[in-house]
Design goal:
Elements: H1 12-17, H2 28-35, H3 38-44, E1 54-58, H4 62-70, E2 76-81, H5 84-95, E3 99-104, H6 113-123, E4 128-132, E5 134-135, E6 140-141, H7 144-151, E7 158-162, E8 181-185, E9 197-201, H8 203-211, H9 221-229, H10 239-253, H11 267-291, E10 295-296, E11 307-311, H12 317-326, E12 332-333, E13 342-346, H13 353-367
Parallel strand pairs: 2-3, 2-4, 4-7, 7-8
Antiparallel strand pairs: 1-9, 5-6, 8-9, 10-11, 11-13, 12-13
Helix pairs in contact: 6-7
Length: about 375
């Protein structure tokens, strides 16, 4: 069973949706399929009542939408870098021909709001700030509101947020947190097969995007948003994944994926219960690590509800992962410079607390009795 930080385990019922017969992407059936998504994506992005933000779905990876987000803003971009994927965001700024300025934060921590303000004041103006809300490489969650609160004093600077391993695992609160463009793949806390990206754009982001003269085509955010609103995808979509996502979203909203005692919950309450489950799984993983004399890699205030990155100490991580795989469980070694120094557990999506206990039992078997 996959306990890596994504792709994560997918329920058989969701995999079965991918086996539905093909449909024409200009058919009434496709229109109906797209219309199944938005009411539930509004819960996932935490849209405020009466929100003017626009939702969208595209047949590409989250990395594709990371690039797309940059095609809708001006050329001066400030990137908060505190891990491998926020570094990728900064590299994409340069790849699309924009000017990249970075705030390099120690891995394991989130950005200091005072430092962010200082850079904005002294090196701005910037057209946008990029943020990875949940660094899958380090298990670091940066509170989005700590960034958006600073940006309130810089109204011409848009906030672009990678929500890849965060959305569907924790509340996004798109409007309340002042996000202008948020995006994610569906293979993490949504617990679907990879291959689709979901995104949400504010009105002011769309106004900015329409002013940009070279947005490309396949990743043009305006084309994608307008196509989604018209229920006509610009290019042929991966319809099997639309079916999978639609069913999963409906199941989450209907409480199907919750523990039995909570399956009566519906709508916003069901989504909040899903978020609460992720928090409990983080707390249980942290308690297990402490029982082994280990610590989570991030500073305590920045721990992720979906990905626990654990400092390995004297554990041979490769051997540990191999022992777990022999027992039917797959976790991840550390990422990049943290390989061999940390290991990562993706306790997200449709994983259960009972399943986590089984993983913990297997980890204790591999490591031997705790001291």
């Amino acid at each position: 069973m996959l306990w890596i930080p994504g792709p994560t385990e997918v329920r058989p019922e969701i995999l079965a949706e991918c086996a539905r017969p093909a449909i024409g992407h200009r058919s009434a059936a496709m229109t109906q399929l797209i219309e199944r998504l938005d009411p539930h994506l509004a819960y996932a992005f935490g849209l405020a009542e009466g929100s003017s933000a626009s939702l969208g779905v595209h047949s590409c990876s989250a990395s594709g939408m990371m690039e797309a987000s940059l095609r809708g803003v001006g050329k001066r971009v400030l990137s908060i870098v505190n891990g491998a994927f926020s570094k990728r965001f900064a590299q994409m700024v340069e790849a699309v021909g924009s000017e990249s300025t970075t705030i390099d934060v120690t891995w394991g921590a989130g950005v200091d709001p005072a430092l962010l303000r200082k850079v904005l004041e002294e090196q701005g103006p910037f057209d946008a700030v990029t943020l990875v809300s949940n660094e899958t490489s380090t298990g670091v969650r940066t509170p989005i509101d700590s960034v958006s609160e600073v940006l309130k004093d810089f109204p011409n600077t848009l906030l672009l947020v990678d929500l890849v391993s965060y959305i569907a695992g924790a509340p996004v609160d798109f409007d309340a947190n002042g996000i202008d463009f948020g995006f994610a793949g569906i293979q993490k806390a949504f617990a679907c097969p990879p291959g689709l990206a979901v995104f949400c754009a504010s009105e002011r982001y769309m106004a900015s995007a329409r002013e940009q003269k070279q947005r490309g085509w396949y990743l043009d955010p305006v084309l994608l948003i307008e196509g989604h609103k018209a229920r006509k995808t610009p290019a042929t979509p991966t319809t099997p994944l639309y079916y999978a996502l639609a069913q999963q979203l409906e199941d989450i909203t209907a409480g199907v994926t919750l523990p039995e005692a909570e399956q009566h919950l519906r709508g916003k309450e069901a989504w909040q219960a899903r978020f609460d489950k992720h928090t409990r799984m983080l707390e249980r993983t942290d308690a297990w690590a402490k029982s082994r004399g280990l610590e989570l890699y991030p500073d305590a205030q920045f721990t992720s509800p979906t990905v626990s990155c654990i400092a390995a100490g004297s554990i041979d991580v490769a051997e540990f992962c191999a022992g777990l795989k022999e027992r039917g469980f797959e976790i991840s070694n550390g990422y990049g410079d943290l390989k061999g120094k940390t290991f990562r557990i993706g306790h997200m999506g449709d994983h259960t607390e009972e399943g986590l206990e089984s993983l913990i039992h297997a980890m204790d078997e591999v490591l031997g009795a705790p001291l």
